[in-house]
Amino acid sequence: MFRKMAMGSAFAAVLAVPAAWSSAQPAQPARCLHGPSEAPNQKTRREDARRVVEAINRAENGGPAVTPGQRRTYRALDQLGNLPQAPAGFKTQLNTDGSTYTVSLRDVQDACHFTIFSDQEMWVYEATPQNGFGIRPVESR
Predict the structure, then answer these.
(1) CB neighbours of 120 closer than 8 A, spacing ≥ 6?
(2) Pairing of strands 101-107, 90-96
(3) Binning pLDDT at 50, 70 and 90, where does residue 65 land?
(4) Which of 15, 25, 83, 92 is the most exposed place for a label (fewest CB within 10 A)?
């Protein structure tokens, strides 16, 4: 009798699981914090992050003038002095080999992985990664 009850309970449990799965709502796609429908507080965070990248560019490139034949030397983040704080939720990364650097501020709160980045050329870019993997041939002229 015990064996019959245990089998019946197990069978009922198996039947209940698909019912629970079918009643679950499909996951909503995560909404990007930055873009055409950006909220005012997110715009402020984004603009503040951009100012941090611009400040890093000025700190890296604003040192003494480099004479012809001399190379500029770039420094690590902790050697740049007084920089503004990155907005809450942005992760700062600066990499340098001394003769070049790259800096990025990635919004870790954004489901779309929004990032602001730059390098020693001082162009500032804002982007999100593309979804999926694909091979895109380089166009030739």
Answers:
(1) 60, 61, 72, 74, 100, 101
(2) antiparallel
(3) confident
(4) 25
Q: What are the tens digits of pLDDT across the range 20-46?
A: 444 555 555 678 999 999 999 999 999
Q: Which residues lie closer than 8 Å to 73 by C-beta, 6 or more apart?
A: 98, 99
Nearest to 124 by CA among 62, 77, 56, 72: 56
Number of helices (H) and strands (E), helices first, in the chain?
2, 4
Residues contacting residue 91 through CB under 8 Å, at least 6 positions apart = 105, 106, 108
CA distance 94 to 38: 26
